[in-house]
Amino acid sequence: MSASFFTLRGRSERAMAQDIRSLITPEGLSRFQEELRQLQAERHEVCAIVSWAAGNGDRSENGDYIYNKQRLRQIDRRCNWLARRLKNATVIRPEQQSGGGKVRFGSRVTYIDEDDQTHEVRIVGYDEADMQRGEISIGSPVARALMGKTAGDGVEVQTPQGVKYLDIEAVS
Q: Residue 17's pLDDT is what?
């Protein structure tokens, strides 16, 4: 067995990595559930169109049939993915975590980078990360560097461009 699969507290790194991949915030869970509901409603409508289009004759040149059949496959893929994620999700409520003042899953962190630019990010699950909302994945280099630190700490982040230094301003 390779060194990368050694056991920590009775659990392999692989099992721990899988557990981390299933973490999600309550807001992320709600977004995924709502998206699944919307897709299921859309699927019903698309199925009706496919059925109607199939009854119009030659399917090989039927644009309505071809387009909606393709859309149906896209919906089914996304629904299956969402259903798997929701089934395996471990909801972490940030307010119930201990470690007052330390960066944890769900924390909102304000930091200053080397260029004196202030950034505010929230550490969320792999699947719910969205930079437009200021949410970064728990597996990102920045989040990994920030985890367990407190306001006033400086951290080094290894990036493809080299090492970057960040100063943590606030943790909430």
A: 53
CA distance 127 to 142: 16
What is the C-alpha to C-alpha distance for residues 16 and 9, in angstroms, rounded to an integer?
Answer: 10
Cβ neighbours of residue 89 closer than 8 Å, sequence gap 6 or more: 22, 23, 24, 29, 32
Whole-number Å distance between alpha carbons of 36 and 29: 11
What is d(CA 27, CA 143) in angstroms, rounded to the nearest whole number?
Answer: 19
Exposed, middle or buried by CB within 10 Å (0-12, 13-18, 19+), for 169? middle
Percent of the chain scored above 70 by pLDDT?
A: 88
Interstrand relation of 108-112 and 162-171 (parallel, antiparallel or unpaired): antiparallel
Q: Based on C-alpha coordinates, what's the Rg of the chain?
A: 22
Q: Is 123 helix (H, G, I), strand (E, B) or coil?
A: strand
Helix (H) or strand (E) run with residue 13 in it: helix 13-21
Grouping H, G, I as helix, E, B as strand and the rest as coil, residue 138 is coil
Diameter over CA atoms, the chain:
70
Render pLDDT for 20-61 as a digit per residue (tens, 0 to 9).
778 999 999 999 999 999 999 999 999 999 999 888 877 777
